[in-house]
Amino acid sequence: MKLKIPKVIQEVETFIYGSMLIGGELQQDLARAGIIKYNWSAGHLSDIGASGFFTAFYLMETDKIKNKFAIALGIPAFFSGLEIVGPLITKHLPHPFVYDYQDAICYFGASLTALGIKELSKKLFDKKSNLESRAKN
Description:
The protein starts with a helix and ends with a helix. Helices cover about 80% and strands about 0% of the residues. By secondary structure, it is mainly alpha-helical. Helix 1 runs antiparallel to helix 2. The chain is built from four helices and no strands.
């Protein structure tokens, strides 16, 4: 069985983004409980993790999609839409959503980074395997 390095890179990337999502949510819970002070990382790490995780996972599992850029923009657009609609729906709750434009930046940045990592790893290692196969012939 041949090890596919781009796939391994994507699996590691997905794991890192998933860890950021869980860690960011934990930080937010600790900040709400007053155990730690709120900081930028506590507010945005889970946003980066969520968008990056779903984009990286989707791109990793679907190699046959022709327009990967649409996926990399569709996922953060969905999350950004929730950011806009969320405060309208939850305004009467004790802890309503609050719109933060930095969240949208985190969503798009993470998704485009996930796409970039996939494409870069694929080009680097596919080029290397093509050179190796030419050298054998």
